[in-house]
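Hmm, what's this shape?
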Amino acid sequence: PELMTVFKEVADIKTADQLHLPTPEAHYETVVVQPTEQQEEMVAALSERAADVHSGNVDPSVDNMLKITSDGRKLGLDQRLINPLLPDDPESKVNACVRNVHRIWQDGQADRLTQLIFCDISTPKAGSAATPLERLGEQEGEKGSRFNVYDDIRGKLINMGVPLEEIAFIHDADTEVKKKELFAKVRSGQVRVLIGSTAKMGAGTNCQDRLIAIHDADCPWRPGDLEQRAGRIVRQGNMNKDVTIYRYVTEGTFDAYLWQTVENKQ
C-alpha cells in the first residue's frame, strides 16, 4: 500500500472508463428452447423432492435443496446429464448453440473470427481420455455415464466440418504457459472456438482480438460471473465493432428461473 501511494504521487493513473477507449458494441440475444416431455416430467419430480425436503420427510444426507438445484441446473442444460440413456433432443439448447456456433464459424472464415462458449457445469472429466480424438471415440462407445456437454459440442462441430485443431477446451491448458499459448492461438485465429467455465476463462483471459460472439450455454450463480463472461469480448483490442452475446434458456426448467433471478439481481 505504501508503494502504491508513492507511485500515485509520481504517476498519472487513468482507468479504462476515463480513457474512453473503443470497445465493441454488444448485442444480446436470448435463445429460448422448449423442454422435452422427459424434461417436464423430471421438473415435476424435482418439485416433489423439494416438497419432501421442506416438510422434513427426508434425511438431508439423502436429499437436500443443494442436490435438487444441482440436478435442476443439469436438467436445464441437457436431459442426458440426468440420464445418459435419454435421447439427444434435436431442439435442445445444446444443439441450438452448436448450430449457432457453426453458422458464425462459417460466416467468419475470411477473417478467422473466433467464439467462446461458457459452460460451468458438465465440464470434461479429468483423465476421461488422453486425447480429444480418444475422447470422441469414447463418446461413440458405451461409456454413457461419462457424457459431458463439452465433448458433445466438440464432436458435433467436428461432424459439421470444423477442424479438430480449431476447437479447444480451456481445461486442457492446465499450466499458465499452456494457457498463454492457447490465448495466443485464439488471438491469431488458429483456434476459433474455445470452450470453458467462468472460473477458468474469466479474468485474465486475453483473447479478444477476433472475438465475434460468446455463448452462455448455462447460467452462472452470480451476476458478477455474467459480467466476467461479457468482459472477455467487450474489450479494447477487438477488431470487431459489433459482437453478439447469446444466452440459451430451456423454458419451464430451473434454468429459466435462474436466468430470471440473476438478471433481476443485476
